[in-house]
Amino acid sequence: MRNLKWSFGLLTAVLVSACASTPPPPPSVAVLTLSGEGCVAAPLLTDAVSLTPEKKKAYYTVSTLINEVRPCLTADTEVSRYVVYALPLSAENHTVSVGGRQEAIRTFAPSVRLLDADGKTTRQFADDRFAVLGNIVGVQFRPLPHERYILVQSNPKLVGKSVNTLETRIGTNHGYALNPATGYGSSYQTQHGIENTVNRVFSHEGFVDVTVQAATGMIGLPNEK
User: Fold this and answer.
1) pLDDT tens for residues 58-89?
2) Residue 82 domain-assigned?
3) I want to staple 104 with a disulfide (CB 3.0 to 4.6 A). Which of 27, 35, 155, 200 is the partner?
4) In sequence order, what are the residues at sequence separation of 6 or more whose Cβ sits closer than 8 angstroms to the Cβ of residue 136?
5) For residue 16, is it within any domain?
6) How many domains does the chain have?
C-alpha cells in the first residue's frame, strides 16, 4: 500500500509538471487568400446574426469569428468572407460600432455596408472612414429608419497590408515596506507605462465585433425605462 501511495504521488507530480510546462497556443495568423469555392454572388439574409439581446439592455456587444466555415462572396474576380447582422427595431435609435478586432498579429480586414429589407445596399463606408475604435478597426454610425442589415465582409484590397502601432499598457508592481521604528509594515503598488510596437496584418479571417447602444430606452425598445 505504501508503494502504491508513492507511485500515485509521483504520477500526480508528473501530471502537474506536464500541465505547467504546456506552452500557450500560437496566435492566429492572417489568411491572405481564399479559393472562392462554394461562394455566392449575394449575401444570405436568412442567416443574419441578431443584434437584439435576449434580455433588455441599453448596451450590447456581439463578437463573431470569421473563419473557413463562414460563407464567402464573389464580386467580379474578388472573393471575401462575410457575415450579416440584423439591426434591432427602431434602428435609428441606436449608435453602432462595427469592425475587425485587433488580435495579436492579425486584424480582420473590414468592409461595411448597410442593406434595406430586400438586401439592397443603402450605404457603403469608404476606406478612409475606418479608424481605430478601442480594440477594433471599424466605423461608427447611426442607422437610418429603412436600414435593416449590416453586411461585413473582408476587404481584398486591404488584406495582406501590415500596420505597425505603438501601444502602451499599464504595468503594476506590488511590494511591502517595513517601518523599523514601529515594526509594522504596509503593502504598496506602483504603476508604470510599457510601450511596445505591434505589427498586425489584415486578414480575410478573424473576429468581427459589433457594439450597439440605445440613444433612449433599451435596444429595440426606445420607450422602455
Assistant:
1) 999 999 999 999 999 998 889 999 999 999 99
2) yes
3) 27
4) 97, 98, 99, 100, 101, 102, 209
5) no
6) 1
